[in-house]
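A protein record pairs a chain with a discrete description of its three-dimensional fold. The following entry can be read in just this way:
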Amino acid sequence: MVNKIKNIARTEKKPFDFILFIIVILLLAIGVVMVLSASAPYSLSITGNSYYYVIRQAIFAGVGILVMLLVSKIDYKKYRKFYKIAYILAIIALISVSIPGLGSEAKGAKRWIELPIIGRFQPSEIAKILLIVFYAGYFTQHKNEMHTFVGGFVKPLAFLIPPVAILFFIQDHLSAIIVIGLIVCVMMIMAGTKMRYFLTVGACGIAVLVIGIFVLAQTTR
């Protein structure tokens, strides 16, 4: 009983990672400077204030740091209980761009939603975090299957189909598809999926693509 209490105490009182914190601050600072460089002329012409967008970005960055510090105090193992809910919420967040009055379209793409105070933002950014939580929980619960082709390769990628389909057919958001796909693949490898599954399926996919292009070229002559 005493050992159990000591283990809980060690879990709750983890040392603060100053190196990671400094890296995050530096990346945020670089991002804010880039926003200033890219938006100053446009901001001046639209709002009359060259610093309107950079101030807005800096405020969100500050809020993000506070949220990060608060979330870091929560034991990450507690998220595991809600990994299935995280997946459902990710799908809802991605579909939300199609809700009339909520979704916002720009240049033919529906990637944003409009909320009071917060304004316009991309729900795909929230979906990325939720999908990370989902896959982390899923891999933990199915760690004994990760070395198999079906359990460690097919099933995880099958869960990726709905969000990718929504991003492709509804949001027309290729960059988000690439980012989410890379994140999931890296997580799969770290969880134990064998690299040869990716290489074999990738090689087969390239072969099919090359054959398809060759056949198409022959039929269009």
Summary: Residues 77-95+121-221 form one domain. Residues 18-47 form the longest helix (30 residues). The chain is about 70% helix and 5% strand.
